[in-house]
Write a structure and sequence with these properties.
alpha/beta; 48% helix
Amino acid sequence: MRTLTLQLVLIFLYPRLGWGKTVVMVPGPGKSYILYHARIAEALTELGHDVWMCMSHNMTQRGLVKNKSIHILSYRESIPDLEQKMESSLRGSNMFTDFWEGKSLNFDSLKSILKVVEETGYEIMSDDDFQKQILGLKPDLMVLEEAPALRNMVLLPYKFDIPFAWIGTAHNMILSRVPFSPAVETNIFSKDTHKKQFWQRLKSTFEHVISMYYDPFSDNSFLSKYAPEKPYKTISEIALQAEVFISEMDHILDYPKPTLPNTKLIGGSSATEPKPLSGQFKQFVEQSKNEVVIVTFGGNDFPVPEHIVLKMMSAFEQLPLSVVWRMNTTSLDPNQILTSTWIPQNDLLGHPKTKVFVSHCGKNGQYEALYHAVPILCLPIYGDQFYNTERVQAKGFGVGRDIREISVTNLADTIQELANDGKYKRNIQKASNLFKELYKVPSKEAAYWIDHVMKYGGDYMRSSGQEMPLYQFLILDVLGCVVVVVIFTCTAIIMLARFCYRKVLKQKHYKQKTL
């Protein structure tokens, strides 16, 4: 009893005794980044730490961070709202137009969108007042978003000699120097399966080799622009100094991947226990005599053609199920189909009546469906959604279809198959149980490892491969030495063979001459 009382006193006094640390979190300057960083920040405040979150002035005004224990550090007002810039870039590109017309993905359009994020990073690094505020806080750790277009932001902790950690939505094996085989690993923007044929393995090898030497999102001139006083290092070399790499993925929804001790997999932090429904959603679900299908293409307003909307509406009308659909359209039958420009996705997926999730197969939606054990109909549109769809099918959590080609009848039949065929529910229910047992609350797992490296540092988890130049990591010097030795040995053997051959010829010629 005395020990328990002492522990409770220590927990209560933890921040007051100065044991709590100052953590500065630098999410991407967009809503989705800020929301999941805020969950982790909240978990850190529960451990007694003083947490500051960096965001644009416009984002601050939107009240995205609800917890008052989390402090806000704003960029200058002239830095634009990334959400608006991204949406403008999406609508101005041909990426979605090409998709709906059945054309190949327009990578130039994708690059232009990522360029918007990259330019925002440049503007943040140019904000001297923002940097002075960070210096004034004297952070014990900075937590950076490991999104490719935001990687240059690692210059901030390097410039001020602040320890840092990465957190991101994918496991970047190249960035963290994990030894791996391209025969097994799949590019998340590829449609290849996890079991590759020869030509797929060949393509994967070239893709990974190119990625090792060429990173279009790392600007190595960043150092000379914003921290010329620091010793020169590439962005990748600075990135390797992270205390820990926290990745929003796992071996249950994704495929098993090799990791080093300082890479921590936490699953998806957007998945949480559901809150009670309210308003029109509570009324619709509770009054419905049928089970429910949740339909959404995520938080972004994808431009969906009218004929696709009408096709989906017709399919939903054929279902013996009620539908909650995030779509800016008017329902022809509000008693069966509830449409809204926003839905409480996680809370709806956690409702006992929900049977099927129809989704573009983004990362957050997948993890929420996994957490609540809801089979998924994947209708991918761009980016990593095709990879996500392939693994959902491979693991038996759902099926994938092409929204452009599927007929009204086939769409309705596929939803009913997922609702009625128990194998999908059994597969994803088992995975859900395993996920909850292993990862518990992902945001708290992330907070635990951030707290851990502030106490003990991350050096003891670091591989020697993260300390050496890339050519040594890839043993190019060893291979070069082997090649030289092989060439020298072969040359010596050839020269010796020629010498012996000539010697034999001379002796033979001499014998013939003497005869």
